[in-house]
Design a protein that fits this description.
Chain lengths: ~100, ~170
């Protein structure tokens, strides 16, 4: 199997961004959290399903678009940056949410 | 009423903690250790070390996905109805409101980061010895999986502490 690393790194970055957005949005909007809950029975399970499906679909779409030539270091920095920022945003959001 | 709930739950938990939480933690830690192994193999890669790293990364991915499913089952089936209400009524409600909420969502990053690491090892296995950028990227990613995994263990400890002090408060 020929792996397209550029598509894989970008799919990972965008999936992490999606998880962060879903997390914050579902806490701020009750109707949206209700939709996520109704979809699978639990909002967290739906977030997992959506993330996995999004990751797979995005990878296959991007691998049709991108040729596999990349600056691997730069793409990895995007993944690491999204991970650190996403994690911090989620943590700070719940700290703020707890005290408010 | 809350006190009764505490006492009832306390009696249940003195009998036995849910084994699923132990399985979730053990499987997750094996996944994290696998990526620590991958990190070490790739510090100074050779043909043999890359071959080993490929196998170990695959094992790590499988264990992290298993930890996702086992932990998810416990979280949905047990934690939400039996543990969360006690922590929120106890002296450390932040253990759920901040730590569990952060843990359950940041955990979702891990399976994708582990898949990316595995995919990159497969892609660069033939020129990883010469390709310094790919080697650096893989060290960064496997190190990130290890650090996030260890932070999950730390957060798990804080959640357990929140649960324990809630039970103790009602004794």
């Amino acid at each position: 199997m020929n792996i397209n690393v550029k598509s894989l790194t970008q799919s990972t970055t965008w999936t992490i961004i999606l998880i962060t957005i879903l997390t914050i949005w579902s806490e701020l909007s009750k109707p949206f959290k209700g939709f996520l809950t109704n979809f699978s029975g639990h909002h967290w399970v739906t977030k997992g399903i959506f993330s996995l499906v999004f990751f797979i679909i995005l990878y296959f779409i991007l691998s049709k678009i991108y040729e596999d030539s990349l600056d691997v270091k730069k793409e990895t920095y995007y993944v690491v940056g999204a991970t650190i920022l996403g994690g911090l945003i989620i943590f700070i959001f719940f700290v703020e949410h707890f005290f408010s | 009423m809350v006190n009764n709930l505490f006492k009832e739950k306390n009696n249940n938990y003195q009998e036995m903690a849910d084994p699923l939480i132990g399985i979730h933690a053990a499987v997750g830690e094996i996944g994290v250790l696998a990526f620590l192994w991958v990190f070490v193999e790739l510090i100074n890669p050779s043909k043999e070390r890359i071959k080993r790293a490929k196998i170990i990364a695959l094992i790590g991915v499988i264990f992290l996905f298993a930890s996702w499913f086992v932990g998810g089952y416990y979280y949905v089936d047990v934690y939400g109805s039996e543990v969360k209400p006690l922590i929120k009524e106890g002296p450390a409600p932040w253990a759920h409101s901040v730590i569990t909420e952060t843990k359950e969502h940041v955990f979702l990053f891990l399976p994708f980061l582990s898949l990316l690491t595995l995919g990159m090892i497969h892609k660069y296995e033939k020129d990883l010895i010469k390709n310094k950028d790919a080697k650096f990227s893989l060290l960064l990613l496997s190190g990130l999986v290890v650090l996030i995994g260890l932070s999950m263990a730390g957060m798990g400890y804080l959640i357990s502490t929140g649960f324990r002090v809630a039970l103790e408060a009602a004794v």
